[in-house]
């Protein structure tokens, strides 16, 4: 009977708290969104399962030496996984639209207004300057960058920031259209753009090298993300390392995505997540995303006042770095206004520029606050 009592007392069942049950429900919601609704399944599924496991008692997964501790400590706290994600993104990114129309870089930069607007708003809500920076970066709709910045400035916010960032990435088709339509006329949305030129191979090879040189010299703290992003792109554009390109964009990307999702989910214990600040993160995340969309559209309209070759203001909405979903949303909106309007390649310019802009913004925050 004593041995039976010891076995029964070792069950985690007796240690379950109301907070942990609440986190199970949150994890089930994320799993439902990923599996049934298809919302960012590659990240929300491992994040959801990681939350579930992290809120089971007596597992030892989060203790030093535990499996999830190893994933988090060596993958995220030591800033390994987000740069590897950027390596894969670089190997999948075509900078051709940016090189064909360089002024679209400004539209990607303009979308970062949402980052700094939400940063100021979070400060006014009472968040610390470190927490406010992590909330602001959600406006860039770039999950790996949000995680990278949180790991540097506010590790306790990582789970809520990551879930907010990936959730709003999935809501791009819902958030962008009403804001973009409110700020543009049907005539502006109907504007057809022409691709005047396409960069040659030499330009596409030189861009990641010169881009890395300029950006990292200006914002050295962005080097982990920018260096790997440009290296992945150089793999692809060089045409001489097909195996490395394939591994970067497929096998490696898939492996680190699993580790990233589980590690992020493991940070979302009931003690950390179930706080009033978490609600504030999600509210300000919407504000950041809305500001980023509006900033890109408004700067595009302003640009049309001074440039000869006009741009369709809708492509400014693609400046948020949800690649390529934001560009596809812009394409659909353009065709809705004018069935002959093909904006996808034009929208990819600010879309790709937004990835770079968000990484630079994260580097600027790290430089200013550490």
What does this molecule look like?
The protein is an all-alpha fold and 370 residues long. It has one domain. The chain has 21 helices and no strands. The longest helix has 28 residues, at 276-303. The chain is globular and about 85 Å long. Keywords: Cell membrane, Ion transport, Membrane, Sodium, Sodium transport, Translocase, Transmembrane, Transmembrane helix, Transport.
Note the topology.
Elements lengths: L1 H8 L8 H18 L5 H14 L12 H11 L3 H12 L3 H5 L3 H7 L2 H12 L4 H8 L6 H11 L4 H13 L1 H12 L2 H4 L11 H18 L4 H16 L3 H8 L1 H16 L3 H4 L2 H28 L21 H13 L6 H26 L1
Helix pairs in contact: 2-3, 3-17, 4-17, 5-10, 5-15, 5-16, 5-17, 7-19, 7-21, 8-9, 8-19, 9-10, 10-11, 10-21, 11-19, 12-19, 12-20, 14-15, 15-16, 16-17, 20-21
Short description:
Its main location: membrane. Helices cover 71% and strands 0% of the residues.
């Amino acid at each position: 009977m004593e041995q039976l009592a010891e076995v029964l007392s070792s069950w985690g069942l007796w240690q379950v708290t109301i907070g942990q049950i609440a986190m199970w429900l949150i994890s089930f919601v994320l799993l439902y969104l990923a599996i049934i609704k298809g919302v960012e399944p590659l990240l929300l599924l491992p994040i959801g399962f990681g939350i579930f496991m992290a809120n089971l008692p007596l597992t030892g997964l989060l203790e030093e030496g535990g499996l999830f501790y190893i994933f988090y400590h060596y993958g995220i706290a030591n800033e390994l996984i987000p740069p590897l994600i950027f390596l894969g993104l670089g190997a999948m990114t075509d900078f051709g639209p940016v090189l064909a129309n360089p002024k679209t870089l400004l539209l990607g930069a303009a979308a970062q207004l949402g980052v700094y607007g939400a940063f100021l708003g979070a400060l006014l809500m009472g968040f610390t300057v470190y927490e406010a920076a992590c909330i602001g970066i959600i406006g860039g709709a770039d999950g790996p960058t949000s995680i990278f910045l949180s790991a540097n400035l506010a590790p306790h916010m990582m789970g809520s920031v990551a879930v907010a960032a990936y959730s709003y990435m999935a809501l791009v088709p819902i958030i962008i259209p009403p804001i973009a339509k409110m700020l543009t006329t049907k005539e502006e949305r109907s504007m057809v753009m022409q691709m005047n030129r396409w960069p040659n191979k030499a330009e596409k090879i030189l861009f990641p090298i010169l881009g890395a040189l300029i950006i990292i010299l200006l914002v050295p703290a962005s080097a982990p993300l920018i260096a790997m992003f440009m290296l992945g792109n150089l793999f692809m554009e060089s045409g001489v390392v097909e195996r490395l390109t394939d591994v970067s964009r497929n096998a490696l990307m898939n492996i680190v995505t699993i580790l990233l999702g589980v590690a992020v989910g493991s940070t979302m214990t009931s003690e950390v997540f179930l706080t009033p600040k978490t609600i504030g993160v999600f509210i300000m995340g919407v504000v950041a995303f809305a500001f980023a969309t509006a900033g890109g559209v408004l700067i595009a309209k302003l640009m049309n006042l001074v440039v000869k070759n006009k741009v369709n203001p809708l492509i400014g909405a693609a400046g948020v770095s949800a690649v390529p979903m934001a560009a596809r949303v812009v394409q659909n909106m353009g065709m809705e206004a004018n069935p002959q309007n093909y904006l996808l390649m034009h929208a990819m310019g600010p879309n790709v520029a937004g990835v770079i802009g968000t990484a630079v913004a994260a580097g600027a925050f790290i430089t200013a606050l550490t």
